Amino acid sequence: MKKALKVILSLALVIVMVFSFASCGTSSEGGNGNIAVITIKDYGTVTVELQPDVAPITVENFVKRSNEGFYNGLTFHRIIKGFMVQGGDPKGTGTGGSDENIKGEFSANGVKNTIKHDRGVISMARSGSAYEQYLSMGYRFEDLPSEIQQDIERAFNSASSQFFIVHEDSAHLDGNYAAFGHVTEGMEVIDKICKDADNNGTIPAANQPVIESIVIK
Predict the structure, then answer these.
(1) Angstrom distance (rounded) from CA 66 to CA 193
(2) pLDDT tens digit sequence for 88-108
(3) Strands (E), the chain
């Protein structure tokens, strides 16, 4: 009887160990999001961990575009040293996007988003509204005239394909833009891209760094 009990306990221990190792393997490979590898011509690769647990709509949109090859051949059209690099516009001017817009996942739009716009964070670009300042001044959204509400909603939910990677901490963006992941490898590539950029972000088309591909793993 004791021998049989000993065998059962040994088997139970083996099963526990197997599941423990399997669990560790899953955590180290996937974490809480997908991995995006951005290859930039003549610069190198940037690896980004996406966080669907924080911004599921935004991550789904980015993954969809990447898997479709939408970003292949597009550029980083806006580069500001000490701030960010922005790309993903098929027009290369900051005025284009994909064929659909998504809900802005950030607190000003009523969505909790805990990701800070620190160095290396990836976030979605969007249109702005001159009326957003009313909210920062303390006015309640529901107390604003309907036409102003509509303009703010349009801006808040205007993200499409354009994204940016933060070069240096930019806390003023927190709560107003949908951050959805962070760089785990390759920030030196972003540093290199930003090295000779001016302060207004204007990059001639011929000098815009080209995104060769974004591969989701």
Answers:
(1) 21
(2) 999 999 999 999 999 999 999
(3) 35-40, 44-50, 76-80, 84-87, 121-124, 163-166, 179-185, 211-216
Q: Which fold does the domain 32-216 belong to in CATH?
A: Cyclophilin (2.40.100)
Contact 184, 32 (CB under 8 A): no
Residues 100, 183: Cα–Cα separation, whole Å: 26
Angstrom distance (rounded) from CA 180 to CA 57? 9
Hey, how many other C-beta atoms are within 10 angstroms of the C-beta on 165? Answer: 26
Q: Give the burial string for 170-202 (b: 16+ CB within 10 Å, else e).
A: beebbbbbbbbbbbeebbebbeebbeebeeebe
Cα 78 to its chain centre, rounded Å, is 16
Domain extents in the chain: 32-216
- Give the whole-angstrom CA distance, residue 102 versus residue 166: 21
Q: What span, in angstroms and rounded, lies between the C-alpha atoms of 61 and 102?
A: 8
- Whole-prediction pTM value? 0.83
What does the block give as tokens for 201?
Answer: 């972000």
Give the count of beta carbons closer than 10 Å to the beta carbon of residue 121: 24
Please write the tens of the pLDDT for every residue from 154-178.
999 999 999 999 999 999 999 999 9
How many whole angstroms separate alpha carbon 160 and alpha carbon 85? 16
